[in-house]
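thread from #wetlab-drylab

HS: before we spend reagent money on co-crystallization trials with tetradecanoyl-COA, can we at least see a predicted complex? here's what I'd submit
DV: go for it
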Amino acid sequence: MQRPEGNAAEVRRADAEFFAQWTSYLAGQETVAIGQTLPPHSQDCVGCGPANPAGLGLQVVRTAEGVEAVHSFSDAHVGAPGIAHGGVVALAFDDLFGFVLYTVGALAVTRSITVEYQAPFRLHHPYTFRAQARERNGRRLLLHAEAWDNAGRMAGSASATFVVVGAGHFISGAERPHGEDG
Ligand SMILES: CCCCCCCCCCCCCC(=O)SCCNC(=O)CCNC(=O)[C@H](O)C(C)(C)COP(=O)(O)OP(=O)(O)OC[C@H]1O[C@@H](n2cnc3c(N)ncnc32)[C@H](O)[C@@H]1OP(=O)(O)O
């Protein structure tokens, strides 16, 4: 859903609808079948939001094991000539981990992420990113992902710890005093 600008009441209503959608996924009222595309984290999300022209625009599909996205980095995300910047590769992994939450059924945020860059990610070449949950220990989710080129070579992999939070963590985040997390 498009986030309206300028009108605080409209922004709050859009946010409320967005949170309600997530809540219904987490409550199991809405599910996404294997092979279907998962909804973006928000319309403006830098990883997957279709309304963010500076973003990656990841389109993520649910799989039997977790989630998957086929993505080609564009000129907007160049580092060294012809090669995607390592930071945007990390963004792709982090955002993909955000989709694994649909399969776990919990809200969580990145506490740490480690990326291995096995080969350069060449611009305009498709890479298949796959991510899944490996383990849950209390509030800690251990997640793992890999990215493969079309020749079947692994270009990168990532491991992350996400920490489960309540919906309050996201609500009015910008207005919340530092240290008051949900
Ligand atoms: C309805 C709403 C809809 C929203 C939709 C959006 C969906 C999501 C979109 C996703 C978009 C993409 C993703 C994004 O971009 S997410 C955005 C980027 N990430 C953040 O902004 C997170 C910022 N950090 C925090 O807010 C706090 O630090 C959190 C909430 C994470 C924890 O602070 P809190 O004070 O609450 O907890 P704690 O410090 O006691 O720790 C908790 C537990 O974790 C264990 N631990 C800690 N560190 C590590 C470590 N390095 N390795 C292993 N374990 C570690 C620790 O021992 C403890 O374990 P246990 O003792 O309980 O067993």
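DV: The chain has one domain: 8-169.
HS: ok that's useful, forwarding to the group
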